[in-house]
Structures are given as C-alpha cells and as structure tokens.
Amino acid sequence: MSFRMVDVSGKFETKRFARASGRIRLPKEVVDLIREGRVKKGDVLRASEIAGMMGAKRTFELLPFCHPIPFDAVEVRAELEEDGVRVEATVSGVWRTGYEMEAVTAVVVALTNVYDMCKAYTGEMVIEDVRVVEKGGGKSDWYDDLSGLRVAIIVVSDSVYEGKREDRSGKALREMCEELGAKVVWERVVPDEVNAIKGAIEEASGVADLILTTGGTGASLRDVTPEASQDLLVKEMPGLAEAMRILGVRFTPRTLLSRAKAGIVKEGCVLINLPGSVRGATESLSMVAPLIKHLIEMSRGGGHE
C-alpha cells in the first residue's frame, strides 16, 4: 500500500479558520490545587495555553499527511471547570487547505501538558471530548459540484475536425464533468473558424446549462475561440478566466499566453473557454468548477446567498 499527501496546489487561497475543544477530567483536590496556584511546576492554565500554541506550530511534524502550512493567528484558552480543565483553540490564516488538525493538535498538546503538570498529584485523569466545533472559509462554505447540470463540450481543432488527430481533451472533460455529477448532453468538433465556433455555441446554448470549449485560446493566428465567444457573451465574467491564468501559472508559465473568455451566453447558460491540452483543460475546469452553479443561479436572477 502506498501513501501520499493530498495535492492542494490547484485550490484557491482563502481566509480559513478552525476551532477545536476538549477537556481533561481531574479530581476535585487537583482542581483546587490549580485554582489556588499550588501546583509545583507553576501556572497550569497559562503554561498549557503556551504548549497548545507550540503544538499547533508543529502539527505537520507529528502527523505525516498534514501539509506544512502557514497560519496567521492561533489562540488557545484553558479554563478551569468544577471537575477538570477545558481547552479551546482557534487557528486561522490564508491558505489552500484548512486548519482543523492544527486546532485539534493545539487542544491535545495543551491537555497533555495539564496531565504532565498534575501527574504528581493523581493518576485519575482522563482526556476526552476532543473535537472540531467550527470551521470556515474552505470549500464547505462555497463549493458546489456540477450535479444536475447539463453540459455541452465543443472541441475546437482543425486537426481533430479533419481526422488527423484523436480528440483527447474533449473526452477528458466529459469524464471529469461526469465525475462531478453533470450530464454531458451535447458534443461537437469544429474547425478553428469563428463562424463554426459561434454556430456550435449558439446551438449548444439551446440544450445546455454549461458550455465548455477546449482549444483555440492561444496566440496562433488560427486561435479564434475567444473572438467567437466574445461576440456571444451577454455578460463577461473576467474573474473566471483570470483565475484560470493566475492559478495555472503554478503549473506552467505558458498559462499566461491563454486568451480564454468566460461569461453568460444567456439566462441560465454559462460559457467557459478552456485550453486545448488535456492537462490545461482539466486543471482549469477544476479551478472554477466550484463556482459555476452559483454563477448559473445568479444569471437566472438568484441572490448571493
């Protein structure tokens, strides 16, 4: 069996946070020692808060599948209860993956420090109820798959149209859309000609919620997909194309040569130009796919929530 860390290179960097909590049960006499400041090793609550912060910083060294991610803030609070100590930790920052494990590790290390500082007085201590109580900023807040959407795929390529080369990008997009829950209802291969591309988009807009073109977005004189698309967009959404370029640079600087367009063709129908390569097309779609349903809903008059 092989092991691997999850690849998060294609995710958006967003403001994220996670809050975790847990407690350690202690005998009353130990609780009294902590309250009265009579534990020999020092201030149990404050020392445990510091230990928790240190634990959050070392999470990636302790858990093999956690990314060594930066965070901007960590707060650990240890509070005395009648029968023990409760710890709560909040970790936040701007990154491509969340902070749940950093928050949980902070809690566990803080509680373990309570155990260490009090073990001379009792062996009857139980760490319990460690859990994530809240998180936000990641895909759970804004992510949507493509389930329920009807998709049209237009392969723009002279060589594929003429039968000189096999279509690979269109097939890869079909598989990806189906994995995301969409139904591909229409497919077409067209040459790199403005009128042919426009005609395919217009026809597809009658049956699909999402139209994906692949190919013809580069700098060649025959690359005219953006020009054909621009003529049909009633509302351009430049942020989608910009995101594909900005995030795509992580994989190859050549992404900056893409002139892809994205936007609304008509109410309830979104058009997105994708690169012609399999990798470029699928990686670009994966970056913007979580936003497509919301965009379609807004084009139909829906609100932001």
Number of helices: 11
Residues in β-strands, percent: 25-35%
Got a strand count? 10
Q: Write down the overall geometry.
A: elongated
CATH architect. name of the largest domain: 3-Layer(aba) Sandwich
Q: Supply the helix-strand structural class.
A: alpha/beta
State the helical fraction: 25-40%
End-to-end Cα distance = 43 Å
How big is the Rg? 27 Å
Number of domains: 2
Strand order of the largest sheet: 6-5-7-10-9-8
**Overall average residue pLDDT:** 93
Q: Give the full name of the CATH homologous superfamily of the largest domain.
A: MoaB/Mog-like domain
- Residue stretches low in confidence (pLDDT < 50, at least 5 long) are none
Would you state the CATH class of the largest domain?
A: Alpha Beta
At the fold tier of CATH, the topology name of the largest domain is: Molybdenum Cofactor Biosythetic Enzyme, Chain A
The arrangement of helices and strands along the chain is: EHHHEEHEHEHHEHEHEHEEH
Please summarize the sheet with the most strands.
6 strands, mixed
